Each structure stands twice: as structure tokens, then as C-alpha cells.
User: Fold these one by one.
Assistant:
Number 1:
Amino acid sequence: MVERVDVRGKRMIVTGATPGSLGFETALTLASWGASVVVTTRSNTDAAVDALRTRLGDDDSQGSIDGHPMDLSDRSSVERFARWYRETHSDRLDVLVNNAGIHLDLLSQWKEPHLSDDGFEIQWRVNYLGTAQLTHLLLPPLKQTSEATGDARIVNVVSKLHFKGSNDQLFERTKPYDSWTAYGHSKLALVHMTLELQRRFAASSHLQAYCLHPGSVFTNVADRGLVGTGIVEAVRKALSPVEAFILKTPKEGAQTQIYCATHPGLRGGLYYDECEPSEPSEDTQDANTSARLWSETEAWLGSE
Ligand SMILES: NC(=O)c1ccc[n+]([C@@H]2O[C@H](COP(=O)([O-])OP(=O)(O)OC[C@H]3O[C@@H](n4cnc5c(N)ncnc54)[C@H](OP(=O)(O)O)[C@@H]3O)[C@@H](O)[C@H]2O)c1
């Protein structure tokens, strides 16, 4: 487990903190180390907040937990959350952990993409576009905090599967649909976003951006990815103790994102794995693609 860091007084957001998830364990550790943590889930947020508060206990030396629902596939929901944060919490934001995400159709049964209400492939919409929207909305408090304290961070939870994405398919999909590749594209885009954030804001505002692979972790992600697969879903449920034994626990899996959120002086603009800098895919090194993605995303964000 990573070494405890004193984060008392810091304000942090962790998206996707449903019990049993990486976000839950991340929020719990950050609050137990003293941070004021705001969590989001898409559904049952009050239950997640209650579970976190119960686990945290009422020791005064610990931080706090608050929460608000947010659906990353819905522009107005993301706007509502960002507005609520700034109105009810503060203009201070030390760390944004962009953890929420989905990995659907694990058996690759979809022949065509499943679309969000506004017409995007659903994993791209949630994992990349929604996360990019949230990040853009929260840049003012993050920059303000980093300028005042010299340390604010954006931590993007990506995946080794970003290697399945390719730059030539980021802007125009010409190949047949494959849900694993689509997941890879959403995470490749988040690596590009991390590198572009670092290029744009590290020198001018001291804002650091990190991305990371958490490992293979026993969370709710596969439950969602196997919904509707009948016998496979049932067999997996029966074998879940074996799976839990083989994979990392959520607490173990959360260590690299906790490390990126807290480790003093940690170098930004890198991809981390097992709390060490690691090599991301070659495609991520194309700065022109990162810049183009940034400007096309900005155009989309300004389009309504
Ligand atoms: N588990 C792994 O092995 C693994 C490996 C590599 C990367 N990752 C990444 O790690 C991150 C955390 O995943 P996890 O494994 O902890 O999965 P999880 O247990 O399924 O948790 C995912 C979280 O994201 C939230 N979420 C789902 N759809 C959302 C939406 N449309 N808008 C807002 N929030 C939404 C969920 O909220 P609700 O419960 O309310 O839906 C939940 O809190 C993801 O980005 C995932 O891609 C996981």
C-alpha cells in the first residue's frame, strides 16, 4: 500500500465511487488521510456516501465525504454537478480524480455501436467526452488552486487497453465496430487529454495531469459488461470467488490513483502503472493528435 500523505485541508473530487469500485476505495483512503472528498455516482449516490461515511467513522482527524449524482453521458447532468460543486463547496479544488467509466459488451456481441441519447458510441461518450466536459468545467477552480498553492492535480484512470485504440480511428471510424477497440479509443483519448493538459497548464499554472492503469481489479465493471449474456453471466457469478482471488482487490487496484493524487512532487504528464511511470502506446506520443483532439473537443463543448 502507498505511503500515507497528509492531505488535511485539501479538496478533492472522485468520480464513480459506488461500493465495490476503485472510486470507493480511492475516496475512502483520501478522506481517511484528511481530505474533504466529494464523490459522484450515476445512481444511488446517497447510499455510496452513507457507506463511505460509515467506513470512515467519526474520528475528527479525518476528512469528510459528500456526494452528488452525475451522469457523464448527459451534458446537463455534468453541468449541474459542476455548478453544485462550485456553489456548495468552494472555488478550491486540489485534485480531480476522473475515475468513473464503463467497459461494456465484454463478449463482443455487438455488431453495431450502442449509442448515447445524443448519438455517440456509449463508451466514448461516458469515458472520454463526459470526462472531458467535467474537466473543462472544473479547470477554473483547479487552476486557481494550483496558482495559489503550487499543487493541483488531474488524475485520469485509463487502462492498458488504450493500446487497442489507434490515432487514425479517433476522428473518423472506418473499421468495423468492435466494443473492446471502442473502449480502447475512449482510454487512448484520455491519455491524449492528460498529455495535452500537462502541455497547456503545468508550466503556466503548476497544474499537473496524470493517467494510470489500475491493473486487473475485481470490481463491478465486469458485472455491467456481461449484463444480458444469460448463462455466461450466471457462470461468472458462480465463479466470482475464484475471480476475486485471482484479481486485485479494489483497495489494491486503487493504489496507483491514490499515489498520483497525493505523492509529493510527483512528475506529471506521464502514464503510471503499479505506482511507477510506464510507457503508454506509441500513438499517445503524437502531440499533433493530442492538440487536434483538444480543439475538436472544445468545439463540441461549445456547440450547444
Ligand atoms: N476494474 C478493472 O480491472 C479496470 C482495469 C482498467 C481500468 N479500469 C477503469 O477503472 C475505472 C473504475 O472502474 P471500476 O473497475 O471501479 O468499475 P465499477 O465498479 O463498475 O465502477 C464504475 C463507476 O463509474 C460510474 N459510472 C458508470 N457509468 C457512469 C456514467 N454514465 N456517468 C457517471 N458515472 C458512471 C458507476 O456509477 P453507478 O454505479 O452509479 O453506475 C461507478 O461508480 C473505470 O474508468 C475503468 O475503465 C478498471
Number 2:
Amino acid sequence: MSEASVSTTWKHPDKIRPAALPGAVRVSTALDRLGRRNRDLAPPPAGSSLKPVPGNKGFPLVGQTFSFMLGGPDFTRRVYDRYGPVSWIKSLGLDICLALGPDATQSVLVNADKAYSQSGWEWFIGPFFRRGLMLLDFDEHLLHRRIMQEAFTRPRLAGYLERTDELVAKDVAGWPEGGQMFAYPTLKRLSLDIATHIFMGDTTGEDDAKLQTAFIDTVRAGTSVIRADVPGLRWHRGLLGRRVLEDYFRAKLPAKRATETEDLFSALCHVETETGETFSDDDVVNHMIFLMMAAHDTSTITTSAVLAALAANPEWQERAREQSLALDGELSLEDLDKLTVLDLVIKESLRLTAPVPSMARKAIKDADLLGHHVPAGTFISVSPWFSHYMPELWTRPEAFDPERFAEPRSEDKVHRYAWVPFGGGAHKCIGMYFGTQEVKILVHHILRRFRWTTPPGYVVPWDLLALPMPADGLPLELHPLS
Ligand code: HEM
């Protein structure tokens, strides 16, 4: 790799946590060392050639919860260095098997023996997003996915693009003429706006506010510390939010069924597979609530990561702008294909800041994970974030270096499961093209209107406790193009 192809070193998001919580990684390391009590997860059955899953129990009662929460990715790397790609930790009261690196990721996501269920997600988001596509398993999941796929065909994507383009162009045109802007809340509002309009179609201003609040409450509830229905607390607000969303979608269903319109809600009411399968009313409601969640947070995180990376790497910002300025008028899918610099930048941003840093599964029968015996009932965590920073896979993994995805380097091709921001296997993100399209449209319009910078030496304080989020809102200095 030539030095010239490497841009300014990206300030490694792992190093952010100590900035936000001074000494957190040091405390995590010390706790980890103090609480280490090596113990295998469970012995393999007699006569089995499998090895047990190695790991340690940590402290009595709390296990490694604090080492894990404070140390984040640094902790995971220590565990990998000590035990290898398959190990276990005790955190949040659960025995969690860590499946780290591309081989373990592949084995779990491909799920050849159907040993791993999506019910691993149930614990985190089940009450608020029940029966969303990601929470279904096996044959039932495949059937629902086949039906939903009809809402994401190329002609439908072209329709969503047209309306997203219109909405974003209008919104960005209204941004202040210059000065400081907090990118994260602005993008979050905008992407929620996109989701309500593109997904739901004909909302009124009043519905928008009510739905957005309900929606934010359901998303937040997943990260509640107190996971019980106590009035006033997050969990309770999440349950109320779920009810508001259900009532809204149910009330609108008859009209959506009666006349086909161009939004996703209508699409789900009318899609049909070649063999005539369709969604029931309950299915449509459950899928809509999940889709809203799956779409908007991930797009906001990705767009924030791209804007931060382009601020820190102005030469890439100029390269991307050149292609955006070369396009004029309304965007088409073919236009988006011409934004090849943004393609590389988005891929690299998704590597450095995977919006879904880890994926949950649960073993529903005894499983063989890379030669280790994983007992039924164990929670599994698959970590794109970990794989994306493995020096075994990536040249200078901490550097922002979009060229790594271009020929001839194609570092992502080293292993099919090296770059996995959208997951893999049967549950691979169904909104991958829609999401990338939205991010591209957003950045394209911002590139055409502004140059943007961050203060010298700025480091994004990614908060990694739930989905990654810039703890400071990501302040950008906007300079309108003359
Ligand atoms: C940059 C944006 C996005 C990222 C990084 C992302 C990431 C992911 C990941 C990692 C999964 C797999 C979860 C698992 O295996 O447990 C997933 C699944 C899913 N995503 Fe996305 N997503 C994005 C955008 C979207 C959008 C825009 C939509 C909808 C329009 C969407 C809808 C879904 C759905 C329905 C699933 C479940 C698929 C299934 O279980 O078959 N995502 N996403």
C-alpha cells in the first residue's frame, strides 16, 4: 500500500470512550485483571470431539458487565487475544458467547445447522419490535422475507429515490447560510422525516409529531437499564409508544388496502409473491414498526460518520464534490451509480463505524461453533465492529483509507465475512440498497451546497453503549459554496 493513498489517520473511535469517560479503558483493564477466574462455559457431552468454550466468569453477580461496558472494543480485543475467536463472558446476567472474526461470524450467520435463533434479539428489543422481520426465524422468516422483497425491487427503489431526493433537496436548501451546525440531530430529524414520508405517505403535520415521539420512545426503550413497566420510566414509555404506533397503522390500514399509493406502507399492503402469498393486517403493522426503526437510526449514523470522515479528509471531500457537481437536476438511480467516490467513502465509513456494532443470536440446540461446544440456551454475539478493526484483515485498520475497497487492493474481498456492516446469511439487511441510496442522496446535496470542517484535532466522541452516536451531536462548521 502506498503512503500516498492513505489519508489523514482517522481518530480511532475506540479511543473516544476514554475522552468521554476519562480512564474508562484503564479501569476496564484493571477490573478485567482482578475479576479473572478462568472457567469453561460447559463441558462437551461425553464422547464428543468438541472443545469447551473458554472464558471467565468475572466478578460474582456482575460478571464482566463493567469491564465490557467501560472497555468496549478494547475489552473484546483483549478477550480475543486471550481466548481466540470463540469465548464466553458473563454480562448483564447472561452467558454470552462471543463469535469474533470472519470465520466465527460466517459460521453463526450462515447457520447451516439452524442452531441459532433470532430470539437473541428478543431480550433487547422484543416487546417493542415483536414480529418484525429480523425477529422471525427459519421457514416463517423466509416466507415473510420473500413477500417483503417485493417492496424493495429496483422500480420501487426508483420511486423512493425520487421522493427522497425532493425532500432532501428542499430541506438542505433551508439550512443556515453558514456557521456551526450540530449534524447528528439535524440528520436524525431529516431521516425520520424521510422515513415518515417515504414509508407512510400521507401523514399530517399533527400525526408526524405524535408518531415521531412514539417512535423515538420505542427505540430508546431497548436500552433501558430498568427493564420493567414502571410508569414514567423508559421501558413504560416504549410500551406506550408501541401502542400509539400500532393504533396509527391499524387505523390507516383500510385506506391503504383500498387504494395503492407509492409509499412503503401501501407496498406492504399490496405486495404478493409469484405464488400468491401476501401479508395479513397484523403482519403489515408489525413490519412497518420494525422497518421504521431499522431504517432511520442506521442511516443517520452512517451519514454522520461520512460527514465526519469528509471533514477530517478534505481531499476526499473535494473528490466527492467534483462528482456531485457534475450531476444536475433530479437524481436517478443511474446518477447515483456515477457517484463512485462516495461509494468508497460510504464503505469505509461503514467499516470504521458499523451502525449495528454487534448482532444477537441464541442457540436453540447444542451447536458446534468452530469446533467448540455451545450449549443450547447460550446467547451469541457476532461483532462486525471487531472484524472491521482486525489488523489480520485490514491494512492499518485505524486509518481512513477508502481506496482499500477499490481494485486492485479490494481488502474487503480477503474474506466474505470481513466487511459485514449489513450482516450476512438469511437475515442480511433487506434495506441495504435503500439505506445506501438515502445516505448518498443526503451527502450529495450537502456536498453541492457546502464545504464543511471540524475543529483541528477534532475526534468524534462515539458513544457505543447502544447504537453508535456522536455524544456531542457532531458539530460541523458549514461554509456555503460561492
Ligand atoms: C446503513 C444502513 C443500514 C445498516 C448498516 C443496516 C444493518 C443491518 C444489519 C447488520 C442487519 C442484520 C441483523 C441481524 O442479522 O441480526 C439488518 C437487518 C435488517 N435491516 Fe438493515 N441496515 C441499514 C438500513 C436499513 C434500511 C434503510 C432498512 C429498511 C428500509 C433496513 C431494514 C432491515 C430489515 C427489515 C432487516 C431484517 C432482515 C431479515 O431479518 O431478514 N435496514 N440491517
Number 3:
Amino acid sequence: MAVEFCLAPAHPFPYQGSKRKLAPFILRFIPKNTACLIEPFAGSAAISIAAAATGRAERFLLNDIHRPLIDLWWEILSRPRLLCEKYHRLWKEQKGQERLFYDKTRTRFNREHRPEDFLYLLARCVKAAVRYNGKGEFNNSPDNRRIGMHPAAMLRNIMGVSQLLSGLTDVRCDNYTTVLATAGEIDLVYMDPPYQGVCGTHNHRYHSGVDLHEFVESLAALNHRSVSYIISYDGRTGRKSHGRKLPRFLNLVHEEIFAGRSTQATLLGRKDETFESIYLSPALVQRLGKDFKHLPISSQPQLQLFA
Ligand SMILES: C[S@@+](CC[C@H](N)C(=O)[O-])C[C@H]1O[C@@H](n2cnc3c(N)ncnc32)[C@H](O)[C@@H]1O
């Protein structure tokens, strides 16, 4: 039975920028007859997971430029139980020496890039954020208030996601442009590039960033081939827009999803609300036909359920 709009499905690992909470709103724009759902900027693949849970697509393609992340995905899809056992061992070993153990694991990860070490670091680091220094070394600190997801919860999440996606999913580690070239008219591309604000600031091997000009050219090429796509692209807090809007000549339909009150504004005693922007391609709007509906205002408070 479809869980659409009831629950945000499990996530395989904590990941900054995950679209898990917004998934129920984005899902409604994914045609039910989608052959392959392609995520060129997969991260924790929240939209593919939600789409698989609700039977929206027959196959999935997860791509990300970050090699350790894709290696982790490979383990989740092919050897999930072994991965969880290794995580369990790390989680137990840290007991009583959490800070030191984190540092040792981070050093080993920077040397050997083991997927289980990466999973442990994601579970323990501040805001589940992937940060590298100029030498390409993971350098985020641990969140010392947390000891990482309990292994039982990790096992449940990873097994659940693996059951949903394995056998139906290909994983790739390429620049997004390479993957876009494979998309056809019966597919759906969901793109969630890094925030414009962070593009180009960490231009090393894992965070190539996305050049706006090149991105717009890629979108124009998709339009030319009548490919259906959805883009999550920045948004606004109150009247302040984050990042530049995508150009009008692409003929995209712009929707806003209410994402809650901004924490910073609340601290300053203001009531600014945050909206995430999504853009739909002309081919998608045409394909949805009479099923295409702008997000109703009534959908907004619902999001609080997922917070
Ligand atoms: C905002 S996150 C995506 C989050 C994802 N929607 C989720 O639900 O977890 C953006 C992702 O794009 C990846 N990325 C950055 N530059 C890229 C590029 N040029 N090609 C492919 N992936 C890229 C990053 O490694 C990161 O995982």
C-alpha cells in the first residue's frame, strides 16, 4: 500500500541537504509511468527512496560526484547486512573514548576510504555535513552531544532502503552532465545541486560544484530533447531570495514549498518563513497534463508533520 503523503520514508544515513522532508511534495510531480528516475546529484537519494516506496518509477539511477558516497551506496544496495555489522562494531568500540575514536576513524577514512568508516562519520559529525579541506581530507568535527545512530535503527533503515532499491538501481560516480546525456522522454530527472551559495567555494575533487552557466546550458539541452525534469534550486526566507533565479527562456514552472520558520529569524524575534524553490520542465508540465496542479496553500502547514 502506498505511503504517499503519510510518512517520509526511512533514510539510509543522515545527510545535510537531504530532501526527505520535502519528498511528499516533490513526489506529486513525478509521473506514475516513469521508466527511470535519474538523480544526478543523489546525496542520500531521498526522492528516489520516496518514489520507490510509492511505486512511481520502474528503475533508478543514483549518481554523485563524491566517490566515498557512491561506494557507500554500493554497499547499501549489495551487502547491507555486512555494512550494518561493521557499523555496529565501530559504534560499540567507541564507547568511553568517543572523541578519540572519531578522530582515529576519520584519519583511517582519509587513508583508506572504507564505506563503514564514512557511515560512522556521517552518523557522528556536526549536522551530518560532508566537509573536506583543500587537500581533500574529510575534516568535519564530531557532534559531541551525539554518539551516532543506534545500530538497531541503522540496520532497520539500511535494510528497508536496500529492499526498496536493490535490483532496480544503478549507481554511478560521474559529473552530472554525463548522466544527463542518458535521459530519455519516458524518464524523470530530479536535480538537487549544491546550494548556489556554496558553489565554487570548495573546488576540490569531491565538491566540484556546479557552474550556473553550464547548468543552464544542460537544462536547455534537456528541453531540446523533451526530457522531463524537476530541479530543487535554493529558495527564499521572507523576502530574501537565496541564489539567482533560473532564466525565463527555459520556460520552467516555478513552485514554492513551505519549509518552516527560519531558526535564525526566530532567534532574532522575526517571523520569516522559508520556502524551497522547485522548477518543473516544460516537457514535464505537458506530460502531467490535467494532473498538473500548483501546490495548494493548504499543503503548507502539513509539512510541519515531517519536521
Ligand atoms: C544538495 S546535495 C543532494 C541531496 C539529496 N537530494 C538528498 O536527498 O540527500 C547535492 C549533491 O550533489 C553532489 N555534487 C556536487 N557537485 C556535483 C557534480 N558536479 N556532479 C554530480 N554531483 C555533484 C554532492 O556531492 C552532493 O551529494
